[in-house]
Amino acid sequence: MFEKSLTDLIRGIRANKKNEQKYIAACLQEIHQEIKSNDPDIKAQAVSKLTYVRGIPSYDMSWASFHVVEVMSSPKYSQKLTGYLAATQSFRQDTDVLMLTTNLLKKDLASGNHLEVGIALNGLSHIVTPDLARDLCQDLVSMLSHSRPYVRKKVVLVLYKLFLKFPEALRLSFPRLKERLDDSDPSVVCAVVNVICELARKNPKNYLSLAPQLFKLLNTSSNNWMLIKIIKLFGALTPLEPRLAKKLLPPITQQIQTTSAMSLLYECIHTVIIGEMLTSGGNSDALAAMCVSKLKIFLEDPDQNLKYVGLLALSKILPTYPKLVAENRDIILKCIDDHDISIRLRALDLVVGMVNKKNLTDIVKRLMSHLLPSNNNNESSTLPSTLLEPAYRADIINRIIFICSQNSYSNIVSFEWYIAVLVDLTYVAGVDVGELLTTQIMDVGVRVKSVRQYSVKAMQRLLSDSSLLENCQFPESNSEVLYAAAWITGEFCRLYSYPGVTKLPHNVQAVYIQSILKVYAYWANSLTYNWDEDSKQELLRFTEMIKDKISTFCSSTDLEVQERAYNAREIFSIIHQNLSTTHETTFDVENNIYSSTNKSPSIISELYPLFFSYELNPVAPKAQKKVPVPEGLDLDAWINEPLPESENSESEEEEESYGYGYTQKFGGSGDLIFSSGSGTAIGRRRDRKSSKKGYNSEEDEETKEKRRRERNERIKNDPFYISSTGNDLSKHSKSDGLSKRVTEEIDVDSIPVVRLTMDEFIFKTDKKTSKKSKASKKEKRHSPPPVPPVIYTDIGEMPENATLSDEEKDSTKTGNNKPIWNSIPSQSSGILDVDFSGVSNVDLSTPLGADEKFPSMAVYLAPEEVRRREEERVRRRFTERRIKQTQESTSRVKKSKSEKPKSKALEITPNTKNTENKGEQSSKSKKVSKKKRTEETEDRKKKGKKDKGKKPKKKNSISENATLENHDNVVVDEAASIKTLVDSDDIQVLYTLSLGSFTEAKNEPPAMIADFTVRNKCSHKHPLSKLTFTFESTSDIQFDKGLIEIGELQHDEQKSVTIEFKVLGIVGAGLTVSGNIAYEIQSDEETKTNADIPIRFELPMAVFMLNIPKITPEEFKSCVTKTADFPFTGSTSIRLNASINLIEQSFQNDVTRLISMATGTHIVEQVQGAITMYGKSVQGYQVAGLAKLTVEKNIMLVENEIPGSAQNTSVRIELKCTDQAFVDGLIREIDYLFKEL
Amino acid sequence: RHGKIRLKKWFHFFSDKEKASLTTDLTTLILSRKRAMCNVLEHGEHKAFKLRINFFLNHARYASLYFAAGIDCEENELYVLEVIHRYVQLLDEFFGNVCELDIIYNFDKAYYVLDELVLAGELQEPGKKSVITHKRI
């Protein structure tokens, strides 16, 4: 009564601004109390308050989740509303109480009040989890035909959320969803379009079939909201179906011309662009022009939003119609200077794509001005702070460099200007872009010869700029550029002193040292041309100075710097030493040989070629590929002669074309391709002449025939070839291509295996790329003409003798794939679309299979469904009681019968009815048929199908089911079946496996009994003696006594032995028992032959299954719902090959029995096309299984359907089990069993 | 003082951390916008997660209130602007010349109106009247 209301709370919070935290804490205390109240009003109010408090960041309300659910389930509408609101605001995907909401949601969805349904739907859209989606999808789909459009439209939208969480639902419900496109209510149609639009963006292929319907809507609807979505949807579809684009053009063009809604206009233009309609349509140029002219209206509009989207659309049209965009250059350039960063960035995108030789300088100047601090104070005040942000500056610089360097600097007219720009950027950047600038400067310096002079000068200026050195500890100063500067000056050198270098980063230091050496060498060498005493002294002085300076680097902490410094110092000290010694000697010999003083010491002139003997030039991107194979190199020649072949081939050539040829085809084809053009051809030892003939048909038939005969003779004895006689061949011919190839029918010579020689190879590539005269080709082939070593700055250095033939092709290729600056990266990695993968993988093109049903019907049922089932059950019980009354005796007989397990299932056919059962049979089948019918109708309702045409067929199947009902209480005991272990000339061993005596104690490992039957079937009727079985105990299987001695066995005598063992290991696939059988054969008095046969058999999973009484479907259901008992699942599917009519039959009769046999389970219930199975293993593992028959029609034939043909029929088997290994083993065995069949 | 969030609704599943950092980032970004600027804002690299959430932010300013909607880059910006506009119109109609206090004190009702307009991130009702009639009850 004295609780704060929501308004009080809000007012209180606003009144206590100073100590808000404290106030809220106090309120939370109250809420804690109130929320536990039994009064639903107070509780709801508390939840409502909590929802408000939660709106303030840093307040968590997950602790109250349970109370929220309580309020959600309130019968009062207003409280329900509060509860759902709290849930949508606070629940997360991992909120545990979500599990409790399933039934609540089910109830609310079935509510008669459409508003309640509405809030439930809205709530569901926020809290949906994969589990909820699975459990509720069926209810929602059935609600698609709700009487109120208000509910229908919401259901449609919520279904979209559901699909994201539970993609299977999409396939199941899509037909129903599609129907809603024709809904009478426009907002429902709009909702469907919205959902399909979203789905189509992820996987458009699925929705192409909807195009006609959508097209109709496009032409008839006047709802702009929906038109936008439809047009967007078409934008996703047209790239897949170009014909659609043509059809769409008239209505879209009309919309563009007539609509007054800017958003619709924009969507149309956008779709025209991204839907690739411009490339496929006929009069695309006119359309493009119209689009651009409309976009111009956007750009000129004072509304910034329109300007923004206009620029965005233009940037999308840019790749295809750069010219049209260029027409608007002035407006776009104006937008670069817009004060709004969003617009600026979009304009920049465009500008980057518009750059050409003419406007490059101007554009770069504009961009540079963005980086420079503006002089005008007024202007800078209007600039938002974002423009000064480092990220923005870095972006601008990146763009400048991108537009300049794209297409190998093709837009740059003056490289000197570019170097100047780069140097300027170094100073004005204000962000760390040093690395980028460095690579650019070096790249340009190396590539462009003419600019080297200039760049060295510019670099000198950079090097001598003390401000860079002083600020080098800040990353923004870009002192890394000095790296390039030093390198360039070193490489193309003119400079030699660097004070204050020690503070620089290590990698820059390292380059400095290297450059010093280079510069020094250059300078020293230049001195040698004019050598005299002065220059020598100067050289000496400098050498000493540099040596001293370098010494400081010798103690650098950086390894690279240190090493280089030591190297340099050593070189300098050698020179110094050398200089000073020659100094003395020149003094000594001055009198004698005057001329020697004018000669410089040799060491100086030798230093120079170390660095400068070759000029450094860029390497062309293709250079590596173009390296020709040197004349003398024969890649086919053996480096070491191979070992001589074991079998002497008849002739060298024979060996060549067959034996060797085949192996060569797989292993050595690479060699053949690269064999040089000088004459070595296919084979390694074949001479040129034969290679020319090669596999040519010119070879006369006679030699061919001879060769073939010789070959067949040879391979007859070759164990590696499969003999090719008669019928044997047909078996292999399909699977084994190789065996086919070696058969005598096939003309091996005609198979075009390897025919490539280098001559042809070159010829081919030439043909493709350029049409040069044949003469030049020939010339090239034999002696490639020396390509003049001209170095193009934009091609780069090529290896000598390289052909430039395919250069043209590649350049055109790169021309097409002109890189477009794209600041909007593909959103594939965005977190906004993490969860679409499932939905986009759903394939809607194949029709629904019979087995595809909404899941979990057994677990959760819609309320109406529950009621219906209840009625059904009551009715059934009633009829059952009546039958009982009339035929009490027969039912008793049946009961006793069901408890009696039958031993051999395979023998049982529908004809094995006992005569005494006959009387009861009819009544029973009647009863069963009734039961079946009720179940079937239920089933039918579940599927939402009201197919009355099937009735006659149904009856048929019922009688079938009825007969089958008689057999399925048979527990199939596969273990009883006898298998063969050994069957040799002397002996035959059969075995059966069965469960040993077991105790209920679960800890004890299961015991097994193996019964062996040994028979002496020695063909010479000799007796076998000392017959023993030995078995090895392994970690999995333990034998108490692993040795059985049988002794002597006369001819045709048969003996049985039994051995018991325990299975210790994990019962799963691949449990094998191994051992061996040893015996002696006494053929006559003297000769005894010892035999030792290894034996090995697998333990099938079914052996572990217990013979348990059959359970009823009801028991089965209740048992399976305890999911804790069946944590593990396995599934497989088996393809059946039979016509559809037979399949039903064979599924009902044979397949199910085989499955139940393989798994050792019994069939619980059998309905048309599906069975359920249940079994229990000796370890106490429970196995529940479901096998369903799926008939998939071939999609291609849907239209002209031919019954019973082109159908894929498979049985899907799903098993649930208590143990993972066990269920895996079972699945494997089923697979094996059916593979054999 | 500024930048209090009155209403927020997520149509995608984000972690609490993501939500928090997104809201703070966007609040500062939006508040830095001037009146004459366009209503689309790009919020690219997200520092907190190194995830690229590349969406445009559409915001429209009404009196002292900002309405913002995060969209992905395939969405039609003008369309979303109109949705925002429609929402404000609805609030106006529902409260009768809406002001910030209306939304503060009746935040739940503001949410309900939004729920009627937008469901699962999609516009569910293009007609203005039907939204109001459903909410009046």
UniProtKB/TrEMBL annotation, chain A:
**Where does the record place the AP-3 complex subunit delta domain?**
699-813
SMART domains with a match to the protein in the record = BLVR
Please note every region of biased composition (Acidic residues): 647-657
List, as start-end ranges, the regions of compositional bias called Polar residues: 813-829
User: Could you tell me which residues belong to the region Disordered?
Assistant: 643-662, 677-743, 766-829, 859-962
Could you tell me the keywords of this UniProt record? Membrane, Protein transport, Repeat, Transport
Q: Give the compositionally biased regions (Basic residues).
A: 683-692, 769-783, 942-956
Give a yes or no for keyword Membrane in this entry: yes
Q: Where is the composition biased (Basic and acidic residues)?
A: 729-743, 864-874, 896-905
Per its UniProt record, what Pfam families does this chain match? Adaptin_N
Q: Which PANTHER family match?
A: AP-3 COMPLEX SUBUNIT DELTA-1, DELTA ADAPTIN-RELATED
Q: What is this protein called?
A: 3010_t:CDS:1
| Originating organism | Gigaspora margarita
TrEMBL record, chain B:
Keyword list, A-Z: Membrane, Protein transport, Transport
Identify the main location: membrane
Span of domain AP complex mu/sigma subunit: 1-134
Q: Which Gene3D superfamilies match?
A: 3.30.450.60
Q: Which InterPro entries match?
A: AP_complex_ssu, AP_mu_sigma_su, Longin-like_dom_sf
A Pfam family (short name) is Clat_adaptor_s
Q: Where in the cell is it found?
A: Endomembrane system
* Family from the record: Belongs to the adaptor complexes small subunit family.
Protein name per its UniProtKB record: AP complex subunit sigma
State the species of origin: Gigaspora margarita
